[in-house]
Specification:
- It is a single chain.
- This protein is of the alpha/beta class.
- It has two domains: 147 residues, HAD superfamily/HAD-like (Rossmann fold, 3-Layer(aba) Sandwich); 91 residues.
- The chain is built from nine helices and six strands.
- It has a six-stranded parallel β-sheet with strand order 3-2-1-4-5-6, sandwiched between helices.
- Strand 4, helix 8 and strand 5 form a beta-alpha-beta unit.
- Helix 1 crosses helix 2, helix 2 packs across helix 3 and helix 3 crosses helix 4.
- The longest helix is centred in the first third of the chain and has 22 residues.
- Bound molecules: magnesium ion.
- The site of magnesium ion has 7 residues, from loops.
């Protein structure tokens, strides 16, 4: 790991989910709400599946979604409509129609958004960085439902501390680890990527993508990534720094 000269870094760019927000809580809540809606609807159609049976199947679908290399995943796989459709196909329950399926997606995201508060180390750290004079931005992948990630970004309680937010896959043609969203954030801050640090929880999408643009990278270890997902190579890029808490970041940037 090289040491950075503090004078080099002027922009600090964050990932959103599982970096600033406790999104795993939101995802769990969203899946529960969706499973309950689907089980209820299926019962009306004469199918007899319990909410927990549906939930187990939906969890498997969620895991499959994360298996292929993220940058190459077609955008539709981010769209939760396709998750429920794939579930209904597995259950041979083909009588449910699209408007109802999309309504489930909207309820899922509503539950997700309400149940993913910021991590306790997020706001204090961002305020400290802002006070020190760093230019701040967020780069986050599209949620697959138009406008949804933008809505979740704008709901962040300390959104006003960030100068700009980029939704990769909506504001740019491709999601992370494509270089485009990182470059767009730097451009909007009026800084070269070499003057920016990117902070995220995912060694693949966050570290590989940002590093490829010349940014310094900080991996926040929110969860275990030690074992690569099945069929996946271990991440190629290692971060410049690794932290357990965002609170460590101001000191790292101060040298
Ligand atoms: Mg993340």
């Amino acid at each position: 790991m090289r040491s950075i000269r503090p004078s080099e870094i002027r922009g600090v760019i964050f990932d959103l989910d599982n970096t600033l927000l406790q999104s795993r809580l939101g995802a769990a809540r969203g899946l529960k709400v969706a499973s309950s809606m689907i089980a209820r609807q299926l019962r009306k159609q004469g199918y007899n599946y319990s909410e927990s049976q549906i939930l187990r199947k939906v969890h498997l679908i969620e895991r499959e979604r994360r298996a292929p290399a993220t940058g190459l995943v077609p955008r539709k796989l981010y769209n939760r409509d396709t998750w429920w459709k794939s579930l209904l196909k597995q259950l041979h329950a083909t009588k449910l129609h699209s408007p109802w399926i999309h309504k489930t997606t909207l309820r899922y995201w509503d539950a997700y958004r309400r149940a993913s508060p910021p991590f306790p180390d997020a706001e204090a750290t961002v305020r400290k960085l802002k006070k020190t004079g760093y230019r701040l931005a967020i780069v986050s992948d599209s949620d697959g439902t138009p406008g949804m990630k933008r809505l979740r970004l704008e709901s962040l309680p300390f959104r006003n501390l960030f100068e700009t937010t980029v939704v990769a896959g909506d504001d740019t043609p491709r999601v992370k680890p494509s270089k485009a969203p990182f470059l767009l954030a730097a451009k909007r801050l009026g800084l070269s990527p070499q003057c920016c640090v990117y902070i995220g929880d995912n060694p693949e999408t966050d570290v590989e993508g940002a590093k490829a643009t010349g940014m310094t990278t900080i991996l926040v270890k929110r969860r275990a990534y030690a074992v690569p997902l099945k069929g996946r190579d271990p991440p190629r890029a290692s971060p410049t720094f690794q932290v357990r808490s965002l609170k460590e970041i101001p000191a790292i940037l101060a040298g």
